[in-house]
């Protein structure tokens, strides 16, 4: 049976895109408290199918698919630039295909401005009106107003006119940064991208007998199953180890592992894989905030997804990507890696940052384990004995040394030099991600 919170979320998701949503409206229509309605609206905002805009309210927007997450809605643009909506509020849910800087003659500007565009321009009334007629939204910089005729057209065509106090260059930078961040998010795999949904999940109920486990095992060839109660809530997990030697009439509730390790839709695949290897488990239930089973994820699914992700081209460059791009292997046998400290890798004093230093060592360690055919690994913990300030544009040489290696763990020591001077020394423990 669905909870009030889930019923509200389902109701919000069923509303037409562009609809305005309020706590009072939800509370009245679904006969719930305003507190319950408020919490559900905030959850809908986290799930990215509503957006709250200052002085406008909360509107239903189209939930983005993974393939078009890099496209911003006009509602998101308003929040990014701390804007004020002057007209066309009913079009805030629409997505923009590109933005155009209006720093040219009107005729030239219109050659690049078409339907779905966002024209970023200052106090140029004719440009505002012409862009709207061409099917583009308008972002006015410098805090200027729009004419009444432009506002009227915006309302008629459902195309937002937004005003911001920032200048054109700052606004373009802010929007570009937001798109860039979206590209990075697009590359990160979450459980929601690869899980097996509830409708396709094989599970047992708490009042089943061990006999039911064996029947499921023969039917599906799976070795483990989540266990749920009458309300679809996860209460345990049962595997072959749990039923060995047990009578077929024994209750599943008595043999199952209670309080199993679970994940949610927003858990990253990398986190789930790390946890599965660390805990030595092959199956994890996927639940929502109320413990309701939404599906399962297997270790094989996780590892397959991670291997696929490594082969995908990166569109948004993270700190890890920048570090990797600066690494240069000097020699393969007795490994030594050269690294140039770029401005992005420094702290406020112009020296290599602690984060960049640890990322560098982790990447070097992962590289060493891969060339030794030990597969993928995760840095488990690190001890930095010392690190001296290393200035921008310095060239570091990292020399790793494996101290101990077992089936699951590797202990590695690192010496870091600038020229012949030792500037850092650390030890790191890696956990090997094996099938």
From TrEMBL:
CBS domain location: 256-314
Name of a matching Pfam family: CBS
UniProt xrefs under InterPro entries: CBS_dom, CBS_dom_sf, Diverse_CBS-Domain, DRTGG, HotDog_dom_sf, Ser_kin/Pase_Hpr-like_N_sf, Thioestr_dom, WH-like_DNA-bd_sf
Keyword RNA-binding: no
Entry superkingdom: Bacteria
Key words of the record: CBS domain
Keyword Cell wall biogenesis/degradation attributed: no
SMART domains reported in the protein's UniProt record: CBS
PROSITE patterns hit by this protein: CBS
PANTHER family noted in UniProt: CBS DOMAIN-CONTAINING PROTEIN (PTHR43080:SF2), CBS DOMAIN-CONTAINING PROTEIN CBSX3, MITOCHONDRIAL (PTHR43080)
Name the record gives this protein: CBS domain-containing protein
Source taxonomy: Bacteria, Bacillati, Bacillota, Bacilli, Bacillales
């Amino acid at each position: 049976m669905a909870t009030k919170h889930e019923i509200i979320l389902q109701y919000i998701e069923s509303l037409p895109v562009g609809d305005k949503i309020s706590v009072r409206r939800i509370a009245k229509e679904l006969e719930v408290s305003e507190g319950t309605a408020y919490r559900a609206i905030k959850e809908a905002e986290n799930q990215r199918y509503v957006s709250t805009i200052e002085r406008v309210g909360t509107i239903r927007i189209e939930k983005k698919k993974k393939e078009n997450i890099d496209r911003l809605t006009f509602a998101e643009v308003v929040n990014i630039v701390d804007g004020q909506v002057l007209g066309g509020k009913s079009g805030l849910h629409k997505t923009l295909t590109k933005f155009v800087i209006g720093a040219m003659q009107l005729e030239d500007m219109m050659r690049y401005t078409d339907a779905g565009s966002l024209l970023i321009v200052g106090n140029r009334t004719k440009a505002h009106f012409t862009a709207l007629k061409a099917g583009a939204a308008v972002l006015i910089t410098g805090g200027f107003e729009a004419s009444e005729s432009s506002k009227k057209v915006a309302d008629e065509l459902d195309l937002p006119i937004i005003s911001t106090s920032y200048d054109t260059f700052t606004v373009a930078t802010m929007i570009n940064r937001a798109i860039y961040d979206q590209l990075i998010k697009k590359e990160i795999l979450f459980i929601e991208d690869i899980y097996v949904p509830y409708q396709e999940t094989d599970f047992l109920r708490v009042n089943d007998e061990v006999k039911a486990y064996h029947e499921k095992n023969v039917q599906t060839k799976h070795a483990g199953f989540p266990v749920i109660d009458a309300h679809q809530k996860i209460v345990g997990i049962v595997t072959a180890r749990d039923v060995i030697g047990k009578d077929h009439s024994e209750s599943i509730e008595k043999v199952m592992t209670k309080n199993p390790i679970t994940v949610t839709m927003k858990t990253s695949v990398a986190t789930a894989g790390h946890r599965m290897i660390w805990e030595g488990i092959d199956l994890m239930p996927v639940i929502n905030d109320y413990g309701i089973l939404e599906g399962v994820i297997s270790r094989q699914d996780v590892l397959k997804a991670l291997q696929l992700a490594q082969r995908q081209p990166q569109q948004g460059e993270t700190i890890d990507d920048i570090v990797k791009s600066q690494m240069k292997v000097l020699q393969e046998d007795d490994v030594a890696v050269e690294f140039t400290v770029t401005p992005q890798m420094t702290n406020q004093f112009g020296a290599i940052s602690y984060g960049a230093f640890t990322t560098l060592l982790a990447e070097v360690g992962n590289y060493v384990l891969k060339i030794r055919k030990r597969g993928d690994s995760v840095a488990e913990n690190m001890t930095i004995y010392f690190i001296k300030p290393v200035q921008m544009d310095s060239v570091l040489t990292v020399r790793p040394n494996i101290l101990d290696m077992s089936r699951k763990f590797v202990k590695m020591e690192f010496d870091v030099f600038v020229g012949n001077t030792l500037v850092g020394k650390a030890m790191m423990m890696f956990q090997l991600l094996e099938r």
